[in-house]
Amino acid sequence: MPSLSSQSGYTLPVFACAAAVAALRWLQTQQPDTSVTLELINPEQTAEIPIQQVAGLGSEMSLAITHSNPGANLDLTRDTPIWGLVQWAGASQRETIKIQGGEGIGINQATGESAIYSYAQQLLLHNLQKVLGQDQKIFVTIILPEGRALGERTSNPAFGIVSGLSLLGTSGISQALSAPEQLDIFRQDLIQKAQSSKQLVFCIGENGLDLATKAGIPPELQVKTANWLGPLLVEAGLQGVKSLLLWGYHGKLIKLAGGIFHTHHHLADARQEILTAHCAQLGLTGAPLQAIFQAPTIEAAYQILEDLTLSTQVPWTTQVFSQITNAIEARAQAYIYNHTSVQVQVGCVLFNRQRQLFAWGEQGRAIHTQILG
């Protein structure tokens, strides 16, 4: 088995698959495995995943438990338990293998389906089918006991995923998004796309890329940045990009309004302070301002503004976030110029928890309109 680099681990679908395989093997042998070997498919290599516990729940069902290890990533799922519950299926089940999400697996609000995406489905089906005997059928439930609580600490609700975490990703290897080699990958993608277009769209993560595509932004203009916004803004200037659209969830891009250009929360998180300052500058005072400053999350603070807008008939949300998007644009443009002496037009578009575009900077609206034609 190829060993992981010091920066790499495995993605959540790999551990879910390992737990399911271990549970199936117990049903077949009544012996607990201490590890299972999986074919990752992408990349084409194997991985040996330790199994913490396996138990039979009668003769027809078994449960196996493993724990997530994302390597050097600063990932909130580190060490979280993943359960695979497998039971023999009857003749009435049409599929050889049927997979569902249990407690802690998010639900896609748009479809009502479990947030188990294509790579996770492929990985589970491929590895389980290798173990499954002829004429055997199984029903598989993936459970993340801590998933509901962890999901509330992510931007999943902004992308329509509620009640838990997604089994998301296109690879079995979890690369550290803070590692220099990962920045190099993003930089090379930017350089390649800048050769074909001098107008690009920066999206922080996979969910942002997905929403951008659904909104009609051509994939050939989309550049994934992860949290490396600062160095990639500079690279855009060096590559002669003329205009950039920063496309993202308000809870992440708001940091740029405060001059924070590496957006990982482990490094800097002044979102409440930035939002409170802009509210005060627009004249908000008293208890509402204190409530925003003391809100436990940026989403909670956003909701306070929404409620205030409804109760006072003053468009506080629009006013505050219009000012914030303009500040993001100005800060980003200045950042590029200060590091490259190159002028790049930067626009900003923000979306909220309901996946709705709700705030545009002055330049963001113009660039967004140009891109959509």
TrEMBL record:
Q: Does the keyword rRNA-binding apply?
A: no
Q: Which reaction does it catalyse?
A: Co-precorrin-5B + S-adenosyl-L-methionine = Co-precorrin-6A + S-adenosyl-L-homocysteine
Q: What class of enzyme is it?
A: transferase
Which terms are listed as keywords in the entry? Answer: Cobalamin biosynthesis, Methyltransferase, S-adenosyl-L-methionine, Transferase
For the biological process aspect of GO, one term held by this record is: anaerobic cobalamin biosynthetic process
InterPro entries the record matches: CbiD (IPR002748), CbiD_sf (IPR036074)
- In the Enzyme Commission scheme, what number(s) does this protein have? 2.1.1.195
Per UniProt, what is one Pfam family of this protein? CbiD
Molecular function, one GO term: methyltransferase activity
Could you tell me which pathway this protein works in?
Cofactor biosynthesis; adenosylcobalamin biosynthesis; cob(II)yrinate a,c-diamide from sirohydrochlorin (anaerobic route): step 6/10
Query: What does the sequence similarity comment in the record state about its family?
Result: Belongs to the CbiD family.
List the NCBIfam families.
cbiD
What protein does this entry describe? Cobalt-precorrin-5B C(1)-methyltransferase
Organism, by scientific name, is Pseudocalidococcus azoricus BACA0444
